[in-house]
């Protein structure tokens, strides 16, 4: 899947903090700022769950052989990486909403045989990879029924039968855009690059401080 778009999270805005260091160096505060950002980066990279709520969307699907650029599915989930393995698993999930349908606190907990849902699979790697396979369905105990299915990387389908026979299926393509907020924690290599950049800034700050200090006579 291509066209992945990530944004900077409010709780892990390392890039803006890094930019602010450049300003704070001129005020003599650079070293302390660098230490603060380094601590934040290391805490999140170590597997700490820096966020517990995420919003995601997929935009652009193939329907009946045509690409629909504004076809969009939105959702959200809540969970915590309890075992610190860098993955939010189904067992660590406390809420899942897809296209307005709440699964864990909604139909999944109901015993109504005429309205049910299931989550066949769920995982979210804190580096950004989301995998969901979920379905819901219902009927009016007579002639009509309806439902929907969502499987990342494959399809999103909706259907009904009885009084109104209707169905729609959107298929993933290479042009489907995936967005998730807060943004993923950087891969280890990216994290190391960030730390190296911060270390360079710290060195520049020390050098400028020395150059700006009055010399003894």
Give the structure's gist in a few sentences.
It contains 3 helices and 12 strands.
How much of the sequence lies in strands comes to 35-45%
> Number of DSSP strands?
12
Shape: flat
Number of domains: 1
- What is the residue-mean pLDDT, rounded to a whole number? 77
Structural class: alpha+beta
Helix content: 10-25%
Give the oligomeric state: single chain
Task: List SSEs in N-to-C order.
Answer: EHHEEEEEEEEEEEH
How many DSSP H or I helices? Answer: 3
Give the biggest sheet. Answer: 6 strands, mixed
Structure, described:
- The chain has 217 residues and is of the alpha+beta class.
- It has one domain.
- The protein contains 3 helices and 12 strands; from the N terminus they run E-H-H-E-E-E-E-E-E-E-E-E-E-E-H.
- The protein has helices spanning 14-25, 30-45, 188-212, and strands at 5-6, 53-63, 66-79, 87-89, 93-98, 101-102, 115-125, 130-139, 145-151, 155-161, 166-171, 177-181.
- The strands form 2 sheets. A 6-stranded mixed β-sheet has the order 1-12-2-3-5-6, with no helix packed on it. A 6-stranded antiparallel β-sheet has the order 4-7-8-9-10-11, with no helix packed on it.
- Helix 1 packs antiparallel against helix 2 (30-45) and helix 2 runs antiparallel to helix 3.
- It is flat and about 85 Å long.
